[in-house]
Amino acid sequence: MPPRPPLTPALPAFAAVLLLSACAGENAPSAQAAGSPVAATAGDAGRSSCFFPSEVNGWRAAGDQTVYVRVGVNRVFQMKLMGPCPDIDWSETIGIEHRGAATICSGLDATIISRSTIGPRRCPVTALRELTPEEIKALPAGSRP
């Protein structure tokens, strides 16, 4: 019997894109991950500052350099992009590719993938932060995931 070929590194990214392809704007919830990340923010003891890509159940672009993602029921993360990501505010679907660990805890852990007329566009994330409940309420309706 011939040996099996190893899994390609693109498989996790492809899975993340498929998972989030159903998520758009104010979309249907996705399956929740069984565990929760263990890292906590400095100002909010006991609350995780990380998330699994599979926990994302909504997103909204605010311009071409900021994306807000809803994680679970009441958590929202702001993702600042390295540069302009043209047409992301018009995209119906995005994918989140993660590097390293299974969770996304910083901007360096993620890349946003969106559709464009010339194929998938990769937009590296440079900063990630979880918004407070007050910041979520203060978001304009068009920016709230």
Key terms for this structure?
145 residues, alpha+beta, 6-stranded antiparallel β-sheet, 2 helices, globular
Give start-end ranges of low-pLDDT stretches. 4-46
Task: Determine the number of helices (DSSP H or I, runs of at least 4 residues).
Answer: 2
Give the neighbour order of strands across the main sheet. Answer: 1-2-3-6-5-4
Q: What would you call the shape?
A: globular
Rg is 15 Å
Helix content: 10-25%
How much of the sequence lies in strands comes to 25-35%
Q: What is the end-to-end distance?
A: 50 Å
What is the arithmetic mean of pLDDT?
Answer: 75
Count the strands?
6
Run of helices and strands: HEEEEEEH
Tally the structural domains.
Answer: 1
Described by strand count, sense and barrel closure, the largest sheet is:
6 strands, antiparallel
| Structural class estimated from helices and strands | alpha+beta
Please characterize this protein's 3D structure.
By secondary structure, this protein is α+β, with helices and mostly antiparallel strands. It has one domain (10-30, 46-140). The chain is 12% helix and 27% strand. The protein has 2 helices and 6 strands. Strands 1-2-3-6-5-4 form a 6-stranded antiparallel β-sheet. A hairpin with a 4-residue loop joins strand 1 (56-61) and strand 2 (66-71). It starts with 9 loop residues before the first helix and ends in a 7-residue tail after the last helix. The relative contact order is 0.19. The model is unreliable at 4-46 (pLDDT under 50).
